[in-house]
Write a structure and sequence with these properties.
- This protein is mainly beta.
- The protein has one domain: Rieske [2Fe-2S] iron-sulphur domain (Rieske Iron-sulfur Protein).
- Helix content is about 0%, strand content about 40%.
- The protein is built from no helices and 9 strands.
- A 6-stranded antiparallel beta sheet has the order 1-9-8-4-3-2, with no helix packed on it.
- It starts with 6 loop residues before the first strand and ends in a 17-residue tail after the last strand.
């Protein structure tokens, strides 16, 4: 994606609340979701197992990866727990008469909750 202009992703007016679709924004694959009448865009790649999130399930603001069930908040890309240990890139979407566009500025996901040093945590 260019650093100076939004990248058009086409007409998304047919996306209803709860719908999502995969599309290409320059060289980046994104999944675009509509929740509460607002469009959100995430990198279309689970941070846990390199699976497309667009094949998963969207429930409210949460998209669930179809492979292992990792969940991400479409508003900011944060992960909601294991098996993912980090969020995914989140992009700003604008929508106008010409269609939708993904802003090149990436909002960094919130820091991961990776547990104690070393990445291990006690489960019992």
């Amino acid at each position: 994606m260019s650093a100076d202009a939004p990248v058009p992703i086409g007409d998304c007016s047919d996306l209803r609340d709860g719908d999502m679709r995969a599309c290409k924004a320059g060289s980046v694959e994104v999944v675009v979701c509509r929740v509460g009448g607002v469009l959100f865009a995430l990198e279309d790649l689970c941070s846990h197992a390199d699976t497309t999130l667009s094949d998963g399930l969207l429930s409210g603001y949460i998209v669930t990866c179809p492979l292992h069930g990792a969940q991400f908040d479409v508003r900011d890309g944060t992960h909601l727990g294991p098996p993912a240990w980090t969020g995914v890139k989140c992009f700003t979407v604008t929508e106008g008469p010409e269609g939708a566009a993904v802003a090149p500025a990436v909002r960094a996901p919130k820091p991961p909750n990776a547990g104690p040093p070393g990445g291990y945590f006690q489960t019992r």
